[in-house]
């Protein structure tokens, strides 16, 4: 029995393009983001992948990415669960601010701490640790049991919500996961054993 879990970060969004902190705001994909999602679907199709279930966040850019991928696979009607537990981390007071302007206002070192520390949240927002505290329980309750049952599952979400899952799947330290870059629209393919442990990982960004 194949236990397949594919994680994919949404394609480039309008606010990615403008270099803005996005968080829970809801911009759609750019033309490049649509192309990235299309490419992700084509790569999965080349591997003859089909899915039984899909999960995504409550945000348009992740849902649109999933829709495009499923169109490429000819699986438009796939059962899909949407939940804000898979949303991007909330950037609080930084939301909507240009990242360069934030560095000018707060200082490069402070912005770097907010973006790249594990447990220091920006004002009014979430740290990666706090993001994991909502993402991982959802994964363990809703997604992992379905994979263990033998369902082939795809999750389209966000850089930091997916980092939370990858940290759990690969047993990474906070330092290791913070150094992990996830390209937009680049699927990561996991095959799991009957206990949910990773047997193999294939990054389709390579």
From TrEMBL:
Q: Where does substrate bind?
A: 9-16, 22-23, 61, 88-91, 99, 115-116, 159-160
State the pathway, as annotated in the record.
Carbohydrate degradation; glycolysis; pyruvate from D-glyceraldehyde 3-phosphate: step 3/5
Query: Where exactly is the site Transition state stabilizer?
Result: 158
Catalytic activity line of the entry: (2R)-2-phosphoglycerate = (2R)-3-phosphoglycerate
Q: Where in this chain does the entry annotate a coiled-coil region?
A: none
Query: Molecular function (GO) terms listed?
Result: phosphoglycerate mutase activity
Task: Identify the catalytic residues.
Answer: 10, 88
Q: What is its EC number?
A: 5.4.2.11
CDD domains the record matches = HP_PGM_like
Q: Which SUPFAM superfamilies match?
A: Phosphoglycerate mutase-like
Q: Which GO terms describe its biological process?
A: gluconeogenesis; glycolytic process
Q: Which Pfam families match?
A: His_Phos_1
For this UniProt record, the keywords arranged alphabetically read as follows:
Gluconeogenesis, Glycolysis, Isomerase
PROSITE patterns xref list: PG_MUTASE
The main enzyme category here is isomerase
Record family assignment: Belongs to the phosphoglycerate mutase family. BPG-dependent PGAM subfamily.
User: HAMAP family annotated for this entry?
Assistant: PGAM_GpmA (MF_01039)
What subunit structure does UniProt give?
A: Homodimer.
| Stated role | Catalyzes the interconversion of 2-phosphoglycerate and 3-phosphoglycerate.
The molecule here is called: 2,3-bisphosphoglycerate-dependent phosphoglycerate mutase
Q: Species name for this entry?
A: Pseudovibrio exalbescens
């Amino acid at each position: 029995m194949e236990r397949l879990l594919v994680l994919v970060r949404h394609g480039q969004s309008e606010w990615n393009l403008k270099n803005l902190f996005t968080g829970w705001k809801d911009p759609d994909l750019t033309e490049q983001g649509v192309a990235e999602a299309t490419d992700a679907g084509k790569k999965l199709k080349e591997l003859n992948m089909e899915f039984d279930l899909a999960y995504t966040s409550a945000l348009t850019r992740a849902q649109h990415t999933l829709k495009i991928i499923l169109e490429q696979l000819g699986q438009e009607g796939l059962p899909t669960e949407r939940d804000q537990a898979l949303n991007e981390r909330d950037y609080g007071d930084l939301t909507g601010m240009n990242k360069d302007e934030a560095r000018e206002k707060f200082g490069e070192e402070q912005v770097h701490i907010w973006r790249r520390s594990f447990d220091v949240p920006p004002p009014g927002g979430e740290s990666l640790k706090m993001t994991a505290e909502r993402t991982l329980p959802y994964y363990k309750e809703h997604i992992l049991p379905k994979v263990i049952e033998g369902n082939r599952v795809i999750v389209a979400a966000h850089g930091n919500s997916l980092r939370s899952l990858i940290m759990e799947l690969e047993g990474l330290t906070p330092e290791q996961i913070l150094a992990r870059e996830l390209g937009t629209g680049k699927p990561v393919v996991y095959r799991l054993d009957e206990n949910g442990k990773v047997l193999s990982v294939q990054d389709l960004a390579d």
